[in-house]
């Protein structure tokens, strides 16, 4: 299983990090060792003093595909959930400044907690899904897939030009504004359309 993440897919988030608005999707990968099952504890790695939460809609690929056309992309996933793209912001900044890849900041163990999957058929429109993240019961990130720069179908099509999508692969579709630092003992809870689908405790 591979985890594909889309960066800068919400304008307000790109702006909060002073990043340019991309003209085509930006993507990077996390290894399978980044996967953290729902309700497990996330341990802050010793190499960073600035781990940020990024709540994101996650889709699970259910069919192998390459060069998928946008009009067929919806057939390649049936289940969705929320996940957190944990990011070592201090390390990422260093990598960006040096023009280096981001993996050290993004691909570390446990950096991809994933919630419980739900059938997408229970929702009317994939591009009108609201979601939010609570940190210690306080709403810190609020998003709606209507605000994506690139739709889920466009993302699937784009990524599949470069890398074959396989059954079980996960795609993080980008984070809305409101990213911020996590601390030991924080409880993070993700809500998709007001239904809680994920939780992670920080240690
Ligand atoms: Mg992200």
Question: Any descriptors?
Answer:
single chain; alpha+beta; 5-stranded mixed beta sheet; 4 helices; 15% helix; binds magnesium ion
Give the N-to-C terminal Cα separation.
Answer: 26 Å
Shape, principal axes of CA atoms:
globular
Strand content: 25-35%
The number of strands is: 16
Strand order of the largest sheet: 2-1-13-6-7-10
H/I helix tally? 4
Rg estimate, integer Å:
16 Å
* Low confidence ranges: none
Oligomer: single chain
Structural class: alpha+beta
Major sheet details: 6 strands, mixed
Mean pLDDT: 97
Q: Helix share of residues?
A: 10-25%
Ligand types: magnesium ion
Q: How are helices and strands ordered from N to C? A: EHEEEEEEEHHEEEEHEEEE
Give the SSE layout.
Blueprint: E1 3-7, H1 11-16, E2 26-30, E3 35-36, E4 41-42, E5 51-53, E6 55-61, E7 77-84, E8 87-88, H2 89-98, H3 103-106, E9 112-113, E10 118-119, E11 130-135, E12 138-144, H4 152-162, E13 170-172, E14 180-181, E15 187-192, E16 195-202
Parallel strand pairs: 1-13, 3-9, 4-16
Antiparallel strand pairs: 1-2, 5-8, 5-14, 6-7, 6-13, 7-10, 11-12, 11-15, 15-16
The protein binds magnesium ion (MG).
Magnesium ion binds next to strand 1.
Brief digest:
The protein is α+β, with helices and mostly antiparallel strands and 203 residues long. It has helices at residues 11-16, 89-98, 103-106, 152-162, and strands at residues 3-7, 26-30, 35-36, 41-42, 51-53, 55-61, 77-84, 87-88, 112-113, 118-119, 130-135, 138-144, 170-172, 180-181, 187-192, 195-202. It has 4 helices and 16 strands.
């Amino acid at each position: 299983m591979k985890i594909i993440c889309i960066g800068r897919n919400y304008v307000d988030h790109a702006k909060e990090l002073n990043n340019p608005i991309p003209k085509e999707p930006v993507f990077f990968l996390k290894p399978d060792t980044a996967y953290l099952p729902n309700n497990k504890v996330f341990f802050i790695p010793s190499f960073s003093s600035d781990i940020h939460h990024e709540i994101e809609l996650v889709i699970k690929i259910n069919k192998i595909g390459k060069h998928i056309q946008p009009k067929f992309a919806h057939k390649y996933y049936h289940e969705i959930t929320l996940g957190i793209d944990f990011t070592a912001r201090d390390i990422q900044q260093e990598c960006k400044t040096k023009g280096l890849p981001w993996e050290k900041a993004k691909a570390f163990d446990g950096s991809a907690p994933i919630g419980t999957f739900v059938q997408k058929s229970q929702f009317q429109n994939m591009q009108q899904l609201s979601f939010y993240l609570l940190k210690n019961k306080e709403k810190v990130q609020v998003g709606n897939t209507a605000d994506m720069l690139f739709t889920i179908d466009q993302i699937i099509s784009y990524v599949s030009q470069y890398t074959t999508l396989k059954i079980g692969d996960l795609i993080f579709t980008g984070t809305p504004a409101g990213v911020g630092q996590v601390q030991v003992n924080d409880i993070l809870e993700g809500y998709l359309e007001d239904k809680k689908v994920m939780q992670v405790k920080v240690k």
